[in-house]
């Protein structure tokens, strides 16, 4: 298994990122190690199960950004990932900009990706809004770079939240078409499988239960950030939008109540139970009782991560060293696939 995933270093890591993706990254990292150990114990050689996690700093330039802040933001997000449990000794942690193969493969894949496929991408529609003509080409071709990110490493599994599934489906389409058109019967690229957590694939805004929790929401009250202290978390949960009805005893009763459903789902995801179990405990009670319980659960879960993050973010040299070491390994792993893609297209790649 080869697990690959990325996060943009714009804004802060929030609860949606954590529950929808990062927590799964950590679980998969642990599972890979276990699988490698079992393989060695069974007498196998050179276990190949591996995780690669990266900061998508190249994707970050698809929207207006402040160049002087990008590197610092990349280091901060690296610190956040380590604080959440990504271990740079067990997983390969790096930033895209240090691995030029991402850009190279994107260009090679641009010959295979179709305008019609990109035109269907909902993220481009959301992010460009009414100003489609003024959007950057990078925002339009963003999913092709994302395909390169995973195909470059022959990813088998890509843990992401639901909002990234459409991009992953396109990565599979690109891989399949490239293999068919240029593979000469060989599979140049592995078709990656998206992995979304059933219980937290889409965490919604605290201000609007129909919009996803997002780094780009102008209201900080809409999300819980990893850096929020206990007071901020309690205040955000208490001010979260709800309705006047008490909680129902069963999930069916949450239909048409997106904010209530979101808070109950968050509770279940954090606790590792299910909305039904949460409602078995809180059904019949109002938000006056439920919100403080949810706030406390969040504080308890996030404060150790937040404390680690505050400590790690100070050491910029160490973070730089982690990313440089990860990039070296990523460059090595990327080489053979990049060569194969050049060859398949009839391009002669000069010496490096
Ligand atoms: P990004 O930086 O927006 O988000 C990082 C991860 O967090 C998940 N996520 C959520 N999950 C549940 N509920 C939410 N409200 C929520 N908000 C975000 C995202 O689905 C994602 O898994 N394009 C990607 C970064 C990327 C990438 C890749 C991912 C670049 N190349 C290759 C996977 C593979 C992005 O902007 O994620």
Number of strands: 5
Annotated CATH homologous superfamily of the largest domain:
HUPs
The termini sit apart by 29 Å
Query: What small-molecule ligands were found?
Result: tryptophanyl-5'AMP
CATH architecture of the largest domain: 3-Layer(aba) Sandwich
Number of helices: 13
Briefly note the CATH topology name of the largest domain: Rossmann fold
Main sheet strand line-up = 1-2-3
Global outline: globular
Mean pLDDT: 96
Radius of gyration: 21 Å
Q: Which CATH class of the largest domain is shown?
A: Alpha Beta
Largest sheet: 3 strands, parallel
Strand content: 5-15%
What does this structure look like?
The radius of gyration is 21 Å and the shape is globular. Helix 8 (165-182) links the parallel strand 4 and strand 5 (193-195). The longest helix has 29 residues, at 316-344. It starts with a strand and ends in an 8-residue tail after the last helix. The protein contains 13 helices and five strands. With 352 residues, the protein is mainly alpha-helical. The model has no long low-confidence stretch (mean pLDDT 96). A three-stranded parallel beta sheet has the order 1-2-3. The chain has a two-stranded parallel sheet with strand order 4-5. It folds into two domains: 2-201 and 316-344, 3-Layer(aba) Sandwich (Rossmann fold); 220-311, Tyrosyl-Transfer RNA Synthetase. It has helices at residues 15-41, 57-60, 67-84, 101-110, 115-119, 122-128, 137-151, 165-182, 230-239, 258-271, 275-282, 287-312, 316-344; strands at residues 2-7, 50-55, 92-95, 157-159, 193-195. Helix 3 (67-84) packs across helix 12. The structure holds tryptophanyl-5'AMP. Residues 5-8, 16-17, 20-21, 56, 59, 146, 149-150, 158, 160-161, 163-164, 201-203, 212-214 line the site of tryptophanyl-5'AMP (TYM).
């Amino acid at each position: 298994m080869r697990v690959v995933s990325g996060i943009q270093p714009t804004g802060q890591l929030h609860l949606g990122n954590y529950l929808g993706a990062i927590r799964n990254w950590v679980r998969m990292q642990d599972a890979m190690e276990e699988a490698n150990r079992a393989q060695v114990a069974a007498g196998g050689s050179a276990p190949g199960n591996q995780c690669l996690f990266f900061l998508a700093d190249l994707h970050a330039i698809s929207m207006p950004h402040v160049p002087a802040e990008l590197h610092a933001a990349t280091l901060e997000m690296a610190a956040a990932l380590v604080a959440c449990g990504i271990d740079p000794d067990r997983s390969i942690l790096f930033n895209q900009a240090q691995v030029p193969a991402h850009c190279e493969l994107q260009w090679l894949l641009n010959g295979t990706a179709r305008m019609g496929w990109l035109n269907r991408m909902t993220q481009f529609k959301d992010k460009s809004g009414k100003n489609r003509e003024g959007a950057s080409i990078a925002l339009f071709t963003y999913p092709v770079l994302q395909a390169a990110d995973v195909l470059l490493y022959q990813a088998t599994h890509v843990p992401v939240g639901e909002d990234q599934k459409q991009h992953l489906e396109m990565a599979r389409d690109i891989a399949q078409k490239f293999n068919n058109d240029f593979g000469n019967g060989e599979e140049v690229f592995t078709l990656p499988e998206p992995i979304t957590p059933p219980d937290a694939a889409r965490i919604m805004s605290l201000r609007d239960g129909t919009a996803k929790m997002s780094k780009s929401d102008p209201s900080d009250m809409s999300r819980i950030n990893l850096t929020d202290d206990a007071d901020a978390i309690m205040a955000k949960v208490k001010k979260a939008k709800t309705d006047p009805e008490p909680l129902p005893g069963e999930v069916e009763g949450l239909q048409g109540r997106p904010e209530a459903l979101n808070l109950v789902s968050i509770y279940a995801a954090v606790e590792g139970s299910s909305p039904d179990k949460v409602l078995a405990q809180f059904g019949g009670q109002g938000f006056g009782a439920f919100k403080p319980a949810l706030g406390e659960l969040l504080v308890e879960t996030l404060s150790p991560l937040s404390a680690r993050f505050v400590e790690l973010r100070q050491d910029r040299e160490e973070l730089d060293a982690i990313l440089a070491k990860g990039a070296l390994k990523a460059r090595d792993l990327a080489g053979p696939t990049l060569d194969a893609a050049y060859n398949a297209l009839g391009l002669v790649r000069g010496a490096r």
